[in-house]
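Support reply, case 0932

Customer input (verbatim):
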Amino acid sequence: MITTVIACTIGILTTIIIAPGTNVSIPENVSGVGKEPPQIPSVKDMIVNIIPSNAIGAMAQGDLLQVLTFAIFFGVALTMLGERAASLRIVMNQLNELMMKLVDILMKAIPFAAFALVAKAMGTAGVDLIGAMFMYVVTVIIAILIHVIVTFGSILTVLSKRNAIQFLRKMTPAIGTAFATSSSAATLPVTTKCCENELMISKNISSFVLPLGMTVNMNGTSLHHGVAAVFVAQLSGIELGPTAYLTVIFISLLASIGAPAIPGGGVVSLSMIFLAVGLPIDGVGIAIILGLFRLVDMLLTPINVLGDAVCASVIDRRLKNVEQVKDQSAVS
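Our regenerated output:
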């Protein structure tokens, strides 16, 4: 959770500093922005209104924080019921599979729609929009480098007592597989092999931490959420305040935990964040992100994989220290 929050924060700050979406004139009919600016609730209102009075109403109105809160309580209650809710769990799993299939179908059509929308906007904005697209990718790359060097490097040096450069070198096969497949799930066998054979991490730890991290530890996805939200806000001329940034980080944390470890899995969670902070999900900004998502996803998936390996390395180091203390106590 800590590394995910840090990743999203780095993405937000990097995009604010570089400002890839500024100085671009987008026509109103394709920007996706309404006449009235979106109303971002204050922190107080967000906390007070986080519990829905009507779950169905929250879903219909697109109040994502209330929907997420209801989903969490629903999942906890479903777990507590155990076998008495077995049939309902089957239905929920089947519904999830159905939604994923619909997303897969839409993902195949999105590139054509995104191309049409970007082409229309480019006819008015000209080469400035191409420059914004290029700077968007550059911003993602810079944010990734900062996260790998500063966050992962610090964790490896301080908590895991490893050389960060050697760690990255030994993880090269997993990084390459993640880059090629854009799937943490497909990379898991290679990640496990690198951790156990190259980094000498205990099999007991790798077999538990890595599959769990593949599902809940999405540093690259969260980083991209921060970059994309600020980029679209800049492109659409929407001013995001501190409350909106905190909302992006909070929902990104929850959404990245539930994001499927498949190519394009972060697109669904990205739309949740846009709706929560009032960003357009039908304008040229989201079209640019969707059009470039396959390329960007190839850069983000290795960060997801590295985050899992870093966490496994830290846990391995801590448990070995505990075992050493136990051995010393037994000898004495």
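We compared this against your earlier run and they match. Two observations from our side: The first helix runs from residue 2 to 18. The two ends are 39 Å apart (CA to CA). Please reopen the case if you see a mismatch on your end.
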